[in-house]
Amino acid sequence: xxxxxxxxxxxxxxxxxxxxxxxxxxxxxxxxxxxxxxxxxxxxxxxxxxxxxxxxxxxxxxxxxxxxxxxxxxxxxxxxxxxxxxxxxxxxxxxxxxxxxxxxxxxxxxxxxxxxxxxxxxxxxxxxxxxxxxxxxxxxxxxxxxxxxxxxxxxxxxxxxxxxxxxxxxxxxxxxxxxxxxxxxxxxxxxxxxxxxxxxxxxxxxxxxxxxxxxxxxxxxxxxxxxxxxxxxxxxxxxxxxxxxxxxxxxxxxxxxxxxxxxxxxxxxxxxxxxxxxxxxxxxxxxxxxxxxxxxxxxxxxxxxxxxxxxxxxxxxxxxxxxxxxxxxxxxxxxxxxxxxxxxxxxxxxxxxxxxxxxxxxxxxxxxxxxxxxxxxxxxxxxxxxxxxxxxxxxxxxxxxxxxxxxxxxxxxxxxxxxxxxxxxxxxxxxxxxxxxxxxxxxxxxxxxxxxxxxxxxxxxxxxxxxxxxxxxxxxxxxxxxxxxxxxxxxxxxxxxxxxxxxxxxxxxxxxxxxxxxxxxxxxxxxxxxxxxxxxxxxxxxxxxxxxxxxxxxxxxxxxxxxxxxxxxxxxxxxxxxxxxxxxxxxxxxxxxxxxxxxxxxxxxxxxxxxxxxxxxxxxxxxxxxxxxxxxxxxxxxxxxxxxxxxxxxxxxxxxxxxxxxxxxxxxxxxxxxxxxxxxxxxxxxxxxxxxxxxxxxxxxxxxxxxxxxxxxxxxxxxxxxxxxxxxxxxxxxxxxxxxxx
Length: 742
Ligand code: DGJ
Hints:
Elements: E1 2-5, E2 10-14, E3 18-24, E4 30-37, E5 89-93, E6 104-114, E7 125-137, E8 142-151, E9 156-165, E10 171-183, E11 189-196, E12 199-207, E13 211-217, E14 226-233, E15 244-249, E16 255-261, E17 267-273, E18 280-282, E19 287-289, E20 293-298, H1 302-316, E21 330-332, H2 334-337, H3 343-356, E22 360-363, H4 391-401, E23 405-410, E24 414-415, H5 420-424, E25 444-445, H6 451-467, E26 472-475, H7 497-515, E27 520-523, H8 533-538, E28 541-543, H9 550-560, E29 569-570, E30 573-574, H10 587-594, E31 600-602, H11 610-632, E32 634-638, E33 644-650, E34 656-663, E35 674-675, E36 684-687, E37 693-695, H12 696-701, E38 704-705, E39 733-741
Parallel strand pairs: 21-22, 21-31, 22-23, 23-26, 26-27, 27-28, 28-29, 30-31
Antiparallel strand pairs: 1-2, 2-3, 3-4, 5-10, 6-7, 7-8, 8-9, 9-19, 9-20, 10-17, 10-18, 11-12, 11-14, 13-16, 14-15, 15-20, 16-17, 24-25, 32-33, 33-34, 34-39, 35-38, 36-37, 36-39
Bound molecules: (2R,3S,4R,5S)-2-(hydroxymethyl)piperidine-3,4,5-triol.
(2R,3S,4R,5S)-2-(hydroxymethyl)piperidine-3,4,5-triol binds next to loops.
């Protein structure tokens, strides 16, 4: 519901869960009165913005100390007119070089439903109404449109801002965040997802204090260092209780996000394109639309916030036809072969996997050009006829004829100096004239801000795809951008480069997904260097991390699931000792972790023992049985203790409940452990593992007592009657419990 109360000049966006209140202030600016749990609608909530006078504070009106922009809780703060915190935008009038603008409320519009955009990712759906508030700057004739889309029945609002130059003079948008909101107080903890290559999205929680705290990326991708997400939670909030606000940027490029807490304890939260590497020229009649931010409110804890994100992403963001389809179990050859394979070794891996129940084979890096290591061939998207004499075309046919699906790896944005592409188009790489090149994994980035480059890559990919039998594409991206410069742009537009680059990436995604709607896309960037809502618009799953170690993956899973649905988290079982950590974990543990995701294997299954192969068959059978629950059910992170991770997934009909319990290190002579489940019906549930029956309330309030851990009674023959199941002995163990509602 969206209401405008004419007398009090307040907008009230609300549904059964949330309220969002915006006021038009006396000087024409917008202020934020409230965002949180639903409050009843009424004509006048203007009292929520107390007007105070403070000496020294700038006042908007002469001889009136009561209206001070410095003390306003702004909705989309401008620069240079009395608000001294982080501005949401800076718009320069190029005729005067002034950066001061004064947007005043003009009008509003309510739009039913929300359409998809083709040139950049956007939330869509018929269960959404959008309020567009138009503001105008009299001096420059610029227009600012703030959009707020509220769902009929989800605890979420989507925001964006659009700048239109209706004047004659050229304007330069030096900063254009997607959202800014001022909260009344600063009693929050800031949740961010941090990491690096192979340890992405670890949860990091700190209390906030006066001053500015930001996260972001200027690497050209959203990055593994900081995910384009943050949340503000109350100090007492935990996974399943309390208030939390989450913000996720629908964007894959450079971003900034953070809080600015002032000396009156007002917390400004903000998010959008990183202003350090951005500006956008607006000639007369041109416009600029920011990426969107999905904002979520929960008063039922962090897991509930995550579920709302999952719900929005699955139903209103992923455009792929596979959004709600259980994903195929795959075998990927990367960790099995790296670059060293030929058609026979690939077919051996694929056929063995098929025999064990795997549904799709994915041919990773190394199939094209003369790619025997990472120094050559990126950009040459045609088969290496030495490794694959009849090409990917024939290989894909052999594999699909066997009844398996076939997937192929590409890294469309990249080029090696040793490549036909570079020989023919050396000017297509990103480089600054007169400066040395900087390499990353021996490769260079193609200038995707140039449409000719995108056209060329589209055509070469389209050819391979059309001539082969392809069900899946893994789109990789393995370096950060340096020496940013667009040779096809005039000098005054150079700071548009990074945004234009990512629009080029979206353009290629859009063309490929439109031409090949039946192909399942998986995004990837050295693992999770670009795991964001922008990518999910086109690719419903993303390779979460190059780290396939089960223990590391638990942290990656906890952080990733904070925003992104389980069906989007690419996860595989790999060989041990693990290639990234040299740690050895059991096959059971590896599969029990990889199952919370898309699930697949990334090792040569031929070299497993018969017993291990039998285990793989059982794992695949188990996953097939519960895949739909795992990938479409409601996911909860249960409050975990140090050393223990617990997750719960409940099917939509609440008939099946899965409890995943993991132990990292064994403790000497440990006590018993129980886990309290959440959000069950108070019916009877049968635990398939121990055949016992429990009431939902019993599992919620007492909890399930986990298997007895090893207590040190050896040698076993001295202790008749004492037995352990064998699966909870030692370090790195896991249990998966299944409950069926009677
Ligand atoms: C990085 C990816 O994350 C890996 O899974 C693999 O595809 C390699 N690139 C191939 O170069």
